[in-house]
Amino acid sequence: MIYSSLFGMAFDSQGLRFSPVVPRDWGTVQLTGLHYRSAILNIRLEGSGCHTARVLLDGQPVQDASIPAGTTGTHDLVITVKQ
């Protein structure tokens, strides 16, 4: 429930996609050490709401909140959401 509802995780053949919904006043939410195929993900949700405002992968801005299926190694994903 946490993966699919709060983090909005959806798995498909292309990779792992996120569309989080963070309730107001929850503050920062973190999920660390998530094993996904050959990768280990540390995911942080900031803000509140259901609209993605910004996505950083290893500190660099990226277009969408997703992890390609072929990703390897350890990565930090920060998703900022807004109302």
Explain how this protein is built.
The strands form two sheets. This protein has a five-stranded mixed beta sheet, with no helix packed on it. The protein has a three-stranded antiparallel beta sheet with strand order 1-2-7, with no helix packed on it. The protein has one helix at residues 2-6; strands at 10-12, 15-17, 29-36, 38-47, 51-57, 60-61, 66-68, 72-82. It contains one helix and eight strands; from the N terminus they run H-E-E-E-E-E-E-E-E. It is mainly beta and 83 residues long. The chain has a single domain, classed as Maltose phosphorylase, domain 3. The chain starts with a helix and ends with a strand.
Please give the structural blueprint.
Blueprint: H1 2-6, E1 10-12, E2 15-17, E3 29-36, E4 38-47, E5 51-57, E6 60-61, E7 66-68, E8 72-82
C-alpha Rg, in Å? 12 Å
Query: How far is the first residue's CA from the last residue's CA?
Result: 21 Å
Discrete helix count: 1
Question: What is the element string, with H for helices and E for strands?
Answer: HEEEEEEEE
Total domains: 1
Could you name the ranges where pLDDT drops below 50 across 5 or more consecutive residues?
none
- Gross CATH architecture: Sandwich
Nearest-integer average pLDDT: 96
Please summarize the sheet with the most strands.
5 strands, mixed
Sheet/helix structural class: mainly beta
Report the CATH superfamily: Maltose phosphorylase, domain 3
Shape: globular
How helix-rich are the residues, as a percent range? under 10%
Strand content: over 45%
Across the major sheet, the strand order is 3-4-8-5-6
Number of strands: 8
Supply the CATH class.
Mainly Beta
Q: CATH topology, anyone?
A: Maltose phosphorylase, domain 3
